[in-house]
Amino acid sequence: MKSVKVPLKELNNTRKKLMEKQLMNMDYKIKTEDEYGFIPINTDADFKCNYEIVDVELEAMKRYPKNISELLKDDLTSKEIEDLKTSFDIIGDIVIVEIPENLEEKKSKIGKATLEFTKRKSVYMKKSAIHGTIRIRDLELIAGKNNPVTIHKEHGTRLKLNVEEVYFSPRLATERKRVSDSVKENENILDMFCGIGPFPVVIAKNNNVNITAVDINKNAIKYLNENIRLNKLHNIEAICGDINEVSKNLNKKYDRIIMNLPGLAYEFLDLAMTLTANNGIINYYEFSDSYGQGIERLQKAAKKENKKVEILNTRKVKSSSPGMWHVAIDAKVIS
Question: What's the distance, Cα to Cα, between the start and end of the chain in Å?
Fold first, then answer.
């Protein structure tokens, strides 16, 4: 390999100069031997220097693929590469991917490439949309270990779950941190659709509050209780049941109500208004192409209880489908 032979004391400065001039060959490692270093340069490099140009044997650099498509270039056609969905969810040591129908026969190759690229233990393919009262998704293992239980780390917390028994989105991590940062000391908080408890756990880990967390999925509550123990928390009460029924035994008003059930949360706004304390906050989520529909729904529900809402904040959390967003609206409820 064509290299510049440089005294060790000049190695770093010479390397920087060669890199600045784009003359250094980045596919090989620098070699040191006795009092000299050997810096690989491009074979077509034509330049003058005060050091000897020599041919030496150098170790090739390990090249890591930039994306999954690069790993699959020999297994998929250019058209199939275009159709490949390169985004995926990483939940602990599990990867969840979406594969277009026309590529399902290549799912094994895609799974193995995803496993190699992410360095995780298992790859599952989405087989359905989120469905049912308990909000789960059908999955199929396509690479790695058949173990759907994992521990996901988020903002200093650990969240244990079974991806086949509960729904969890790592893409809401920033939103959960944002809500947690907005919480005030000693708030009483109700999470109406808590799942395995990512909102309650992140909030409780970072704030002195009391949280009531409700979900209709018994497996979600099972993992929430495990997550409470795992994170050594004492300020979350986990309740399994339909919030419509559970609410009959909730004998207090809440300073904050979290309503992250974007497809159906609007159906529970009337109930949320009855449970919100004066000047309390509702963190409301829905799927929409704008904020207008959600704001109107909040205002309508408040009016039924002779209350008003002040919209504090609106934002797009993530894309849910072309033209549609998982939107968030923070509303203060005023009696």
Answer: 78
The residue among 44 and 164 whose pLDDT is bigger is 164
Whether residues 94 and 182 fall in one domain: no
* 189 and 254 housed in the same domain: yes
SS3 of residue 174 by DSSP: helix
DSSP character at residue 51:
S
Alpha helices per DSSP H over 42-99: 68-71, 78-83
Q: What is the pLDDT of residues 135-162, one digit of tens each?
A: 999 999 999 999 999 999 999 999 999 9
Q: Using CB atoms within 10 A of its CB, is residue 115 exposed (0-12), middle (13-18) or buried (19+)?
A: buried
The reply to whether 75 and 185 lie within a common domain is no
Contacts of 300 (CB under 8 A, 6+ apart): 269
**Rounded alpha-carbon distances, angstroms, from residue 170 to 29, 91, 208, 294:** 37, 7, 24, 24
Total number of domains constituting the chain:
3
pLDDT (tens digit per residue) in 113-126: 999 999 999 999 99
Residue 171 CB coordination number (10 Å): 13
- In degrees, rounded to 5, the angle at the alpha carbon of residue 126 between the alpha carbons of residues 122 and 127 is 125
Which residue, 118, 147, 176, sits at the end of a domain? 147
Residue range(s) defining the domain that contains residue 295: 166-334
* Predicted local distance difference test score (pLDDT) of residue 227: 99
pLDDT digits (tens, 9 = 90+) for 45-63: 666 778 888 999 998 887 7
Residue with tokens 């949320």: 272
Q: Is 34 helix (H, G, I), strand (E, B) or coil?
A: coil
Instruction: Tell me the C-alpha distance between 297 and 107, whole Å.
Output: 42
Higher pLDDT, residue 216 or 131: 216
- Nearest in space to 71 (alpha carbons), one of 104, 27, 36, 116: 116
The model's pTM: 0.82
